[in-house]
């Protein structure tokens, strides 16, 4: 379901994205669905892209089957990155980083680690607990078809320290699926090798033009989670981002996997509420990660700022 709904999210511009606040009417319907299923008990509600799509579909066409989610094990949101200031304008730095991208070998395997926000909703509809659900996903494409495998990732506390929880087996398979030749429905075609083509390429699955830089980062994340880009395609993506005037440089950081990179951020998708961030390798590895941070002041379930969505490509 997660893989399917991720593609639905990319194909439907009106769908809510992970971390987006729900409209009041949709939230009311969501609570009705949750409590109609289990009126006397608490249950976790996973607000990943997949769950957001399920809630959207339930509210709009009134047809959905909700199974009881597994227990939430990971505690708190990941720690915020701590950038070290660097000299240089965002455009100049991104152009330099594009030149440093190392040649990549041909491979049909995409592997990444991700965290997505999970909430526990109480009987009165109030958020009682927030946590981050870690996953490690591997997608393999070959002549014989495609295979998707999702395993449990390592949970961390709010200081970024790994934790151990009884009954939670890091590395165990959550779900997997095989696709025959031609059965895996790609959202994107072959990525372009010029910056001028990259914007329209990212917009095409959404069916609209003029998307914000934040939307572009989320689309780029969808692309990188579907297929591995070669060096020329990565250079084109970075040069495209270099032309976005609202992308600010935060500084040098160490990403969640311990790799050195430069962090760039934009609040264009939802000003004052959410910020999208991209980390680009200083060692020629290209795009290391993309994340979303809540920076608003209306939510009571998590602090502000708080990381609510993070994907790191290996």
TrEMBL record:
Keywords noted in UniProt: Membrane, Transmembrane, Transmembrane helix
Comp. bias regions, Basic and acidic residues: 1-10
Keyword Transmembrane helix (UniProt): yes
Protein name: Uncharacterized protein
Region (Disordered): 1-20
Membrane-spanning residues: 45-66
Originating species: Agromyces mediolanus (Corynebacterium mediolanum)
Transmembrane found in the keyword field: yes
Low complexity bias spans: 11-20
């Amino acid at each position: 379901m997660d893989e399917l709904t991720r593609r639905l999210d990319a194909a439907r511009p009106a769908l809510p994205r992970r971390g987006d606040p729900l409209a009041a009417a949709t939230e009311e319907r969501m609570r009705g669905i949750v409590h109609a299923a289990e009126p006397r008990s608490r249950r976790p509600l996973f607000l990943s892209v997949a769950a957001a799509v399920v809630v959207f579909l339930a509210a709009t066409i009134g047809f959905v089957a909700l199974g009881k989610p597994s227990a939430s094990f990971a505690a708190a949101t990941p720690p915020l990155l701590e950038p070290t200031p660097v000299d240089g304008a965002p455009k100049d730095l991104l152009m330099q980083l594009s030149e440093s991208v190392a040649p990549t070998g041909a491979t049909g395997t995409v592997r990444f680690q991700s965290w997505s926000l999970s909430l526990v909703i109480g009987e009165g509809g109030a958020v009682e607990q927030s946590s981050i659900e870690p996953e490690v996903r591997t997608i393999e494409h070959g002549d014989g078809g495609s295979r998707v495998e999702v395993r449990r990732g390592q949970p961390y506390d709010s200081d970024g320290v790994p934790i151990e929880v009884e009954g939670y087996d890091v590395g165990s398979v959550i779900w997997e699926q095989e696709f025959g030749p031609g059965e895996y429905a790609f959202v994107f075609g072959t990525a372009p090798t010029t910056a001028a083509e990259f914007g329209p390429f990212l917009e095409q699955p959404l069916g609209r033009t003029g998307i914000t830089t934040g939307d572009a980062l989320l689309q780029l994340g969808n692309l990188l989670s579907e297929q591995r880009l070669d060096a020329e395609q990565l250079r084109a993506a970075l040069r495209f981002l270099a032309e976005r005037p609202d992308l600010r440089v935060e500084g040098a950081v160490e990403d969640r996997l311990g790799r050195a990179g430069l962090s760039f951020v934009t609040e264009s998708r939802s000003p004052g509420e959410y910020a999208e961030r991209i980390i680009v390798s200083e060692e020629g590895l290209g795009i290391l990660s993309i994340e979303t941070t809540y920076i608003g002041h209306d939510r009571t379930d998590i602090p502000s700022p708080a990381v609510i969505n993070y994907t790191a490509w290996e």
